[in-house]
Amino acid sequence: MGLLDGKVAIVTGAGQGIGRAIAEGLAADGARVVVNDIGVSLTGERENAAIAEEVVLAIADRGGEAAANMDSIASWEGATRLVETAMDRFGRVDLVVNNAGILRDAIFHKLEPEQWRAVLAVHLDGSYHVSRAAAPVMRQQGTGSFVFMTSTAGLIGNFGQANYMAAKMGMVGLMRAIAMDMQRFNVRANCIAPFAWSRMISSIPVETEADKARVAKLQRMTPDKIAPLVGFLGSDRAKDVSGQIFTVRNNEIFLMSQPRPIRSIHRSDGWTAETIADLLPGAMAPSFAPLERSTSVFSWDPI
């Protein structure tokens, strides 16, 4: 008996990397899986249209059950066809894993509108499209779980990824909205920020010895480390877990903080720009969030 026996999962961007590891892990835990991937490169160009079918065959070889879908979640029509695939093949949808994504990195003053729109179309619009298409099914079932793959690049920061960071933080807001709006229907939503060597970070420039050491550490964090937490969040054992942000880093699982008030100042007769300038820096600067990259926050070697 697997933790996900009888459940049906949709995994977007499941043709390789983290998505594939999640799809195969969910199948190993007993879920029937719809493998969605249009077979594009890291930057979104068509590459291997049969990649979803390859994952389906790999799952079947291990005794699991899966179906392939090659629709683009960047469109509402593609997302609805994806959910229809799950319903036509398996009759229900219990778990949606919003994992699909592409990169179009550029330093902000050189970031073109097309680069901005392309990344948000897959990560954020795509997550909305698939989740919205699946929501009525879960509402009628009275149960369901959404898992959004966010990133420490969005939660903390990174250079040259304004589009990616905005999309990943947007997914956190979308997750929180779903968790609140659909709580009454026993539908949950959570985020995972994964550390794993995959296509999404394989483009990291390696120019110095420090860069090489950093990449070597990342390569030890394999995508299969992410799948167990996704399986748990999709299971009935996670019925009281919703609205949370987790990070998986090799064998470590972190619960991430979320924005809450940390300091305040008050002036009974109101404020002017000058009085704010006089008081705010001294009162609040010690608590300002530093401009850090995720590698500065997670500065120790993975366990």
Strand content: 5-15%
Largest sheet: 8 strands, mixed
Residue share in helices? 40-55%
Whole-angstrom Rg:
20 Å
Domain Ketoreductase: 7-200
Family: Belongs to the short-chain dehydrogenases/reductases (SDR) family.
Organism: Azospirillum oleiclasticum
Protein name: SDR family oxidoreductase
Task: Provide a descriptive summary of the structure in words.
Helices cover about 40% and strands about 15% of the residues. It has 10 helices and 8 strands. The chain has helices at about 15-30, 50-60, 75-90, 115-140, 150-155, 160-180, 210-220, 225-235, 275-285, 295, and strands at about 10, 30-35, 65-70, 95-100, 145-150, 185-195, 245-250, 250-255.
Concise summary:
The chain is of the alpha/beta class and 303 residues long. The protein has ten helices and eight strands. β1, α1 and β2 form a beta-alpha-beta unit.
Which terms summarize this structure?
Peroxisomal_Beta-Oxidation; SDR family oxidoreductase; alpha/beta; SDR_fam; 303 residues; Rossmann fold; NAD(P)-bd_dom_sf; globular; 8 strands
Furnish the topology, listing elements before pairings:
Layout: E1 8-12, H1 17-28, E2 32-36, H2 51-61, E3 66-69, H3 76-90, E4 95-98, H4 113-141, E5 144-149, H5 152-155, H6 162-181, E6 187-195, H7 209-219, H8 227-233, E7 245-249, E8 252-255, H9 273-284, H10 294-297
Parallel strand pairs: 1-2, 1-4, 2-3, 4-5, 5-6, 6-7
Antiparallel strand pairs: 7-8
Domain Ketoreductase: 7-200
Protein name: SDR family oxidoreductase
Family: Belongs to the short-chain dehydrogenases/reductases (SDR) family.
